Amino acid sequence: MEQQGKQGVIVSKVLPNQDPSLLVEAFVVTATSGVQGAAIGAIMGTITPDISSSMPTPPQAALNPQAMASLKQAQALAGGPLIQARNFAVMTGTNAGIACVMKRLRGKEDVQSSMVAAFGSGAMFSLVSGMGGSNNATNAITSGLFFALVQGGLFKLGEKFSQPPTEDLHYARTRSMLSNLGLQNYEKNFKKGLLTDHTLPLLTDSALRDVRIPPGPRLLILDHIQRDPELREKTGKL
């Protein structure tokens, strides 16, 4: 009982003010992602020929650390279904588990959390696969940094393409007017001529002609401005 109490104190110090369900959630996420990664790795190892078993080990490799490191790296990347299943299980499981914990602790999912998870994933992959040679600590850090940098770049790239285009507030009323008139194709003409919402009460036929709007749409736009009470009031004040 006393030992269990000490363990509880240690956990509470490591994860202060955290729901104990965090550990359960992290375990489930890690296990689930690990199983999925193992399945993917097994499939890839099956469809990719296992060339690691047929790789001859040259006599000089035993005396050359760099040659041995290259051989181990090739074997780690070219193993059969079991080796690939192990590697992918470790990578995906570690990444998902750390990402889950970081999201709960920090309350958000951002590039920093993503890079931390990728660092752990890369480090664990290096350790289990034996990539890079005999210096496990250095290789783990190097692989972790590489994974983190790649993941950070991909995260930022995904953010850039996933963000919806921001609407230009200077043309909000113009956009609404053109949409109501069925003339939304001419919004680019307004923007090209810098005819913002503030210029709507000042619009004339010649101004619309200068931005290459045909006569018919010009008449509809000017008629709409004349009929709009707010715009007509601003026109009168001018």
From TrEMBL:
One GO cellular component term: chloroplast inner membrane
GO biological process: protein insertion into mitochondrial inner membrane; protein targeting to chloroplast; tRNA import into mitochondrion
Pfam families in alphabetical order: SAM_1, Tim17
GO MF: protein transmembrane transporter activity
CDD domains: SAM_superfamily
Domain SAM: 177-227
Main localization (coarse): plastid
Annotated Gene3D superfamilies: Transcription Factor, Ets-1 (1.10.150.50)
Membrane topology: Multi-pass membrane protein
Entry-linked SUPFAM superfamilies: SAM/Pointed domain
Keywords noted in UniProt: Chloroplast, Membrane, Plastid, Plastid inner membrane, Protein transport, Transmembrane, Transmembrane helix, Transport
Compartment(s) of residence: Plastid, Chloroplast inner membrane
InterPro entries: SAM (IPR001660), SAM/pointed_sf (IPR013761), TIM22 (IPR039175)
PANTHER family, sorted: MITOCHONDRIAL IMPORT INNER MEMBRANE TRANSLOCASE SUBUNIT TIM22, OS04G0405100 PROTEIN
Record's subunit section: Probable component of a protein-conducting channel made of HP30-1, HP30-2 and HP20 that mediates the import of transit sequence-less proteins into the chloroplastic inner membrane. Interacts with CEQORH.
Stated family: Belongs to the Tim17/Tim22/Tim23 family.
Descriptive protein name: CHLOROPLASTIC IMPORT INNER MEMBRANE TRANSLOCASE SUBUNIT HP30-2
Species per Swiss-Prot/TrEMBL record: Salix koriyanagi
Lineage, highest ranks first: Eukaryota, Viridiplantae, Streptophyta, Embryophyta, Tracheophyta
